[in-house]
Design brief:
Shape: globular
CATH superfamily of the largest domain: TPP-binding domain
Largest sheet: 6 strands, parallel
Distance between the termini: 11 Å
Bound molecules: ligand BV8, zinc ion
Strand order of the largest sheet: 3-2-1-7-8-9
CATH architecture of the largest domain: 3-Layer(aba) Sandwich
Strand content: 15-25%
Radius of gyration: 18 Å
């Protein structure tokens, strides 16, 4: 299949994932069926204003998601993406221990792999992916509104309203709507997308910016862009190939 040949003959591969890649792990997507929580839309709760107005409500939403994610396991889509990275890096990419600095990608000269994910569930690193850019942060990290310290917190359920040792209120260390993405991470994401000769866009509705623009950047700079999605998205029109179906079935097939 064209996409498979392209992928296997590419040198600089970038994969951009969204919630659809975790759907088969039982993690609810944002905009699909079952993505709603108590009739709230993500845009209503994933904002600094919502947290200011009602921090307990926002934490209840995250607590509910953390509980779902805690019992979720990576699915074949996550493992296939980790396998692509291993093949491109001559098998040397080893899953960095959690919390350790991401192992530098030590692939053969010229070959490179970068995973850019909008997901905050951490399932990619559980599946063995190493070179990961978590552009929207992590649901397992919290940040203190007082002293700004960011730490890993895996309490499920989390004690309402969580506070830092300094007395400050803790928030989820994710990027909310209206908030800037971490500068270094988004720069690295655009850098990787600009240099890619192949980009795989999997399980994203392509509506959230600046993530969606990463696919456009890759395309502009000459990458072959393949989309895997169960439906059509605003990115489908510009993709060189669109593979309709479940990421957990199509991705292993690519290998
Ligand atoms: C910023 C973290 C500026 C939190 C998230 C008007 C026009 C354009 C842009 C804007 C606008 N108004 C506002 C904006 C900007 C805004 C934005 O993009 N809004 C959208 C809604 C229009 N963006 C921002 O605010 C960003 N920041 O712009 O800052 C700035 C600059 C400098 C200084 C200050 C400010 C911040 C965006 C990040 C928001 N945070 N998440 C959390 O997770 O709790 S976004 C949230 O949506 C998640 O991260 C999620 O990943 C992301 C995108 O959703 P998807 O991953 O695509 O998931 P979705 O459910 O939508 O789709 C799933 C897809 O999978 C579907 O297509 C489905 O068909 C498919 N699928 C389902 N099952 C499967 C499958 N595919 C394959 N296999 C399956 N099994
Ligand atoms: Zn603090």
């Amino acid at each position: 299949m064209r996409v498979r040949e392209r992928l296997l003959s590419s040198e600089r591969v970038v994969v951009l994932t969204g919630a659809g890649v975790s759907a088969e792990s039982g993690v609810p997507t944002f905009r699909g069926e079952g993505g709603l929580w108590r009739d709230f839309r993500p845009e209503d709760l994933a904002t600094p204003q919502a947290f200011k107005r009602d921090p307990v409500l926002v934490w209840e939403w995250y607590d509910w998601r953390r509980e779902r994610v805690a019992s979720a396991r990576p699915n074949p889509a996550h493992y296939a993406i980790a396998e692509i990275e291993k093949r491109l890096s001559g098998g040397t990419a080893r899953a960095a221990k959690t919390g350790e600095k991401r192992a530098r990608h030590g692939g053969p000269p010229g070959k490179s792999f970068t995973l850019i994910t909008q997901n905050v569930d951490g399932l990619h690193s559980l599946a063995g992916s190493v070179n990961i850019l978590e552009i929207h942060g992590s649901i397992w990290r919290v940040r203190c509104l007082g002293c700004g310290r960011e730490t890993v917190n895996r309490d499920v359920p989390i004690k309402m309203l969580p506070h830092c040792a300094c007395g400050g209120v803790l928030r989820p260390a994710v990027v909310w709507f209206g908030e800037a993405l971490p500068q270094a991470v988004i720069e690295a994401a655009f850098g990787a997308s600009s240099g890619a000769d192949f980009m795989l866009v999997a399980g994203t509705s392509g509506v959230v910016e600046p993530a969606a623009s990463l696919a456009l950047r890759a395309k502009e700079r000459g990458a072959f862009v393949a989309e895997i999605n169960t439906g059509r998205t605003p990115l489908s029109g510009m993709a060189d190939a669109t593979l309709h179906g479940k990421a957990g079935e199509i991705l292993p097939g690519l290998l």
